[in-house]
Structure formats: structure tokens, C-alpha cells
Amino acid sequence: MIVAIDGPSAAGKGTLAKRLARHFDLAHLDSGGLYRAVGLKLLRAGQDPADEALALAAARSLRPAELSDPALREEATGKAASIVAAMGPVRQALLDFQRAFARTPPDGKAGAVIDGRDIGTVVCPEAEAKLFVTASDEVRARRRSEELQGRGEIAIYARVLKDMRERDARDSQRSVAPLVAAEDAFVLDTSDLDADEAFAAALEVINQKIG
Ligand code: CDP
Predict the structure, then answer these.
(1) pTM for the predicted model, two decimal places
(2) Ligand 1 centroid to 85 CA: how many Å?
(3) How many CA within 13 A on the CB side of residue 83?
(4) Nearest CA to ligand 1 atom 7
(5) By alpha-carbon position, which residue is closest to atom 13 of ligand 1?
(6) Topology of domain 2-13+16-210, per CATH?
């Protein structure tokens, strides 16, 4: 069983995906972490994330240990991630890993919950359940600011909102695997829902789908 959770940044996909994975005893993959790891690798090497050849080399040489670096969650990393994520060859290089995870989830799990931007459209179009999780720009920017502040990062709301809109625009307007809801996805707007309410709503949708 594959559950695909897509949506724009800071819509609450990660929290929701983790809870759903726990509930259904499935593996969880945060696909954004792969793009973030590529971006971070370039930043750390002092390389330009917009250089496609270097980005592709970074994607091809990713190691599992690089997926748990705390710096992955930094805003600068998110920006670099969305730059490399617009490159077709980089996406292709990361596709095999994601599909293999879906086909053979780790720890003998019977399936996976995967969150990202193109899981329901490109990576796993055959997923049993697809959710497109979204929220208003303002609510998402507030959540992201709180998340950053919670980790001790300086986060100015207006700046976070501006950066988030820029990143969403880049993700939505790129020619390869743009951020868009799959035709058969259920759109879950969490603007007025807390994490528990979003989880309950998602559960209802998925239970209906899988009968
Ligand atoms: O945490 P947040 O929702 O802000 O972002 P993320 O899910 O960690 O993704 C970081 C960036 O990776 C996004 O802005 C996308 O450009 C890219 N991404 C993608 O293109 N496709 C995916 N399946 C997941 C992430």
C-alpha cells in the first residue's frame, strides 16, 4: 500500500505523513530530504546549486548518512533544494531510489507513506491513496516561522513568507514534475485545522479509499 502526500512547503505534509505511517505501520519517506541533501552537498562544497553538472554529480553520489544532517532543515538548504529540483537529470537520478523505496519498503513494511511534490503524479501514480495537503500562504509562513524559531533560527515572518512564495512559484512553474495536485488526489486544506484534525481528516479519506 502506497500513500502519496504532496503539497507546497510547510503545509504540514511531514507531520501528517509520519503519523499516518505509524498508524498504518508503513515506512515513511520524506522525498524533500533527498533534494535538500543534494542542495546541502553543493552549499557545503561552496558550489553553485544552479550548476546542473555539479548538481547531478551530487545527486548521483548521495549516501544515506547525508539524509540525516540537521542542516537539511535550514531555509538556505530548502532554497538550494528547489533550485536543483527543477533539473530533469537530478530528478531522474533520485527517481530510482524513491521507486525502490516504494516497491520494497525498509524493515519488511507492507507499504510506504511518501511525501513530496510529485509523488502522486510522477513517482507513484499507482498509489492507493493520494492527498494534496495545502494551506493559505499566511498560515504556512506562520507555521514555518514557528518551526524555525523552535530550532533557534532567526525567522522574520515577512521574509519567510516572501521566500516561501518564491520557492512555491519555482516548484509550480518548473517544466519537469511541477507541484500540482494529481487528478485523483483529495485536496486537504489545513488552514483551519490543527495537526490532530488534519490527521483525522486524512485518515477518513484514506480509509474510504482502501475500504
Ligand atoms: O519542508 P518543505 O515542505 O518546505 O520542503 P521539502 O518537502 O523538504 O522540499 C524541499 C524542496 O525539494 C521543494 O521546495 C521542492 O523544490 C523539492 N522537492 C521536489 O521537487 N519534489 C519532491 N518530491 C520533494 C521535494
Answers:
(1) 0.95
(2) 8
(3) 21
(4) 32
(5) 82
(6) Rossmann fold (3.40.50)
